[in-house]
Structure prediction request, 333 residues.
Amino acid sequence: MRIADVLSFESRVTESAYDFERDIIDWFSGLRSGHLGKWRYEYVPEGSPAAGGPIWEELAARAKNYYVSREGDRALVQSLDFIARTVINPDFIFDLGPGTLRPAIKALLSRIGANSTYVPVDVAAEFLKAAQPLKDEKIVRHVMPRRADFTQEQFTQGIKGNKLFLFLGSTFGNLPTAANSDPEHEALRLLSHLRDNMSEGDRMLLVNDGNMDERTIIDCYTGPLNQDYYMVIPHKIANDLKPSGNFDPLAWKPEVQWWPLTSQCSHGMVATKDQNFSIGSRHFYIPEGTTLNASNSFNFSAYALQRLMNKAGFKTQTYMPPGNKLVLAVGVS
Prediction:
């Protein structure tokens, strides 16, 4: 890998355009469902009652029942030897949806990334800024943040060298689809899209929730911090889109449901009163009691995850650390 390759890639790192208004209009129109999760990470303007980034960080670090981050960190620490054996000297490490760089992530990068360029990829600019200390602390060789929606956009153009994709934190399970629906189509679409960003021999380390116990799953997503986090969406609609009429960001209530047949936790928003409003040229009437599914958390067993990845064209190994709820998978393109 030449320094010129790194510099030319850095010069192309730009902020992508995100159409929040389009996503919200599709949501209220019933054209799409379960696709708003990425917008919760966006910081809501100063003065708003909700700011997604800080709420998420507090939730991941402190919420007693939110096991996903805690178990994910433990899975990485338990699996460092397994990962080091299957992932060898990547030139570039693309971290898809990195969030905060917790100690377990740093431990992983310290083990495999000393000679690598670390490329965090996220829609939330604040999370990308958190990566710079990795270079200062000499955990990785270079840091090149890229703001992009990795589920939709090409983000590896011009890269020469072997790549490792980190897809941690059960983000893979946030597939956009309706409540109580089969995730396979969207899962294969996403995996195929990621393969399109890879070259032959590139690897992906994917970690996703494999827990199927309804009680712990519901508890995981229904604490006070979860409620604040879900409410970012109506506040962001009010702040950014300024609907005319009687849209009320406080007249929504989060509702979490577990669908065992599809291994899906749907994160819905219920209107607590009738609302009549317009966004741009589009008018909406949302009756009291209407539930709109904002996002999903799909859980996959080790077998189901391996089957999906193989079907998408990866050569896959899966591993579930003893006593852990999360599944690790290493796929080779």
